[in-house]
Amino acid sequence: MQSVVDRPLQGLRVLVTRPAHQARGQIEQLQALGAEPIALPLLEIVEVDESDAAAFHNIKARILDIDLYAGVIFVSPNAARIGARWIDEYWPQLPVGVHWLAIGAATAGVLAELDIPAYHVAGGFDSEALLADPLLQHIAGQRFLIIRGEGGRELLAQTLSARGASIDYADLYRRECPQYSSEQIKSTIYAQRLSVILITSGEALENLLELAGPVPDLLSTELIVPSRRIAGIAEARGFSRIRIADGPDDTSMIRAIRPAD
After folding, report:
1. CA gap 103, 98 in Å, rounded
2. If you average pLDDT over every residue of the chain, what do you get?
3. How far is CA 7 from CA 12, 16, 91, 234, 261, in A?
4. For 40-75, how does the pLDDT look when each residue is reduced to its tens digit (9 = 90+)?
5. What domains lie within the chain, and their CATH numbers?
6. Residues 6 or more apart whose Cβ sits within 8 Å of residue 238
7. CA nearest to 175, candidates 155, 211, 201
8. What is the pLDDT of residues 130-178, one digit of tens each?
9. 199 within 8 A of 231, measured Cβ to Cβ
10. Nearest C-alpha neighbor of 100 from the set 60, 140, 144
């Protein structure tokens, strides 16, 4: 029989909100620690395809010209996964002279698995960390391609532009709010009290409130977020028990959960 030490999260019901294709690792870690993970994906990743001709051809043009950029920046694991497929389609061999950059170790890890050797800032997981790196300080006159989803943060492009660089985007996917019935929301969130909610983006947080409503029981549930920026959004929206993890990766988010009393 496993002890409480082996299963420190025994008795906790933890809402897992990552997109469905990214949630498995977090769910398995929580189960191993004794928690009951409750899956409710709050973002759906929808890739741009040929049905959106203008967006599709814009991406294709950027990828065909990828050898003209000094650096290519992948902003997330989804951007890495989808972007690597686009690059592989048109570049059987990676072009030389391009710096491949990733925001966060998880993004770099996805690229490494797909044979793209990307640099990331050790211990950094956001745009701010990459922007502080010496590699991106003296870049006047250089061109960069940012590979991301539609409507992402503008800080990276704005800061690089202010330093004299030329910036293009390849918006490879959209983040949409999944559709759930009121019964699904009730049975997942309200039928039995949640212990903890794991949220890794401001957009996922807004989707949670749109789907479930700013109900006191929800707003008083412990919320784990990966950054002060998202903590600020949560506080402004009425959450009262917010903890900041060391980063957005599965291990950091789970480590921030307090064991059950």
Report:
1. 16
2. 95
3. 11, 18, 47, 29, 13
4. 999 999 999 999 999 999 999 999 999 999 999 999
5. 13-43+178-255 (3.40.50.10090), 47-175 (3.40.50.10090)
6. 214, 219
7. 201
8. 999 999 999 999 999 999 999 888 999 999 999 999 999 999 999 999 9
9. no
10. 144
* Amino acid, res. 225: V
Nearest-angstrom CA–CA distance, 179 and 44: 9
Question: Which residue type occupies 80?
Answer: A
The residue with tokens 């409503």 is 213
Q: How far apart are CA 128 and CA 126, in angstroms?
A: 5
Phi-psi region of 235 (alpha: psi -120 to 50; beta: other; left: phi over 0): alpha
* Distance from C-alpha of 16 to C-alpha of 25, rounded to nearest angstrom: 11
Distance, in Å, from the CA atom of 12 to the CA atom of 14, rounded to the nearest integer, reads 6
Sorted by sequence, the CB contacts under 8 Å of residue 5 that are 6+ apart come out as none
SS3 state at 56: helix
Report which DSSP code applies to 158: H
Cβ atoms of residues 144 and 160 within 8 Å: yes
Task: Compute and round to an integer the Cα radius of gyration of the chain.
Answer: 20
Quick one: angle between helices 228-236 and 202-212, nearest 10?
A: 20
Three-class SS of residue 46? strand
